Amino acid sequence: MKLLILDAGHCLSLALARESNRRGDTELVIDPATRVDPEALRTLAPDALIIPPLSRPFSVPPAAVVEHAEAVEACMEACRDVGIPLVWCVCDQLYEDGHDSPIDEHVIPAPRDEGLRRLVATGDRIRAECPEHLIVRVGPMFALEGSHAWLGELLDTLIDGGTVPAETDVTLCPTSADAVAMALIGMLQQQACGANAWGSYHLAGVEPVSAYTFVCMVRTQLGTRLEGQGENIALGEVKALSHHHDQPLRRVLNCRRVLEVFGVHQKPWRLEVGRMLDTWCRAREDVACQATSQGKDA
């Protein structure tokens, strides 16, 4: 199976590259652009085109949201014209007001924010004009490297002694980019074998947690690992924010359908964060050892 993913530096693109490299049944083509034309699709002839999510669309300039929406629609038109399935990953922030209970796939987001409404309109076009599509709604994605890599940004800030603001009254499901990559390949492999299960799916991990608790856990785990390596670093602090005083916001996606249709189990974010922190600390220790060895040789 050949897959084409856009936005080469995105953390999901890098995660898909790692996952495809360890498999023998998937070829991945990565394009640095954010859109593709029909001619390129005909030449590459991928089994699907994947578009990574615009992370935190509520916090970026409106022009960036419009640009992303227009790029997705251009890709959708190209996929429709050539007959290539489209996979669009979408940030859970489209559910601006959240919900008291986990949000099912059939619930179409209805945000008040103009930029978020623009992304919803793009989803409406995809559902209406491109039958072979997967709209995959994900929670806040985290990874160690690449753009939109939340965890990597947290670690850099904490190591530098900076302050990390995080909401205490927003409950969400942090989502590992590696887990999303593994799930997408599994879903598309089944589609290639005739599953014909197109539509919208939620893929957002398990164990809802406040943004503040998530960041605090990362800080604690990082400190423990660094101490175990003999490093005494004054890590930055976590600043508690509260924006929803009257009603805490719960933005939790119900991921039951992706399990029922494709057999995809959500990965606990605690295990994924722990694994990534182990990887990060090993790399840091290796760099320190190399520096020490080079110093002795000099």
Secondary-structure blueprint:
Blueprint: E1 2-5, H1 11-21, E2 27-30, H2 38-44, E3 48-51, H3 62-82, E4 86-91, H4 114-129, E5 133-138, E6 141-142, H5 150-159, E7 164-167, E8 170-172, E9 175-176, H6 177-192, E10 199-203, E11 209-210, H7 211-228, E12 238-241, E13 249-250, H8 256-262, H9 269-297
Parallel strand pairs: 1-2, 1-3, 3-4, 4-5, 5-10, 6-9, 7-12, 8-13
Antiparallel strand pairs: 8-11
Description:
Pathway: Carbohydrate biosynthesis; dTDP-L-rhamnose biosynthesis. Residues 68-279 form the RmlD-like substrate binding domain. There is one protein chain. With 298 residues, the chain is an alpha/beta fold. The chain is 45% helix and 16% strand. The chain has helices at residues 11-21, 38-44, 62-82, 114-129, 150-159, 177-192, 211-228, 256-262, 269-297, and strands at residues 2-5, 27-30, 48-51, 86-91, 133-138, 141-142, 164-167, 170-172, 175-176, 199-203, 209-210, 238-241, 249-250. The strands form four sheets. A six-stranded parallel beta sheet has the order 2-1-3-4-5-10, with helices on both faces. A three-stranded mixed beta sheet has the order 11-8-13. Strand 3 (48-51), helix 3 (62-82) and strand 4 (86-91) form a beta-alpha-beta unit. The longest helix has 29 residues, at 269-297. The mean pLDDT is 93.
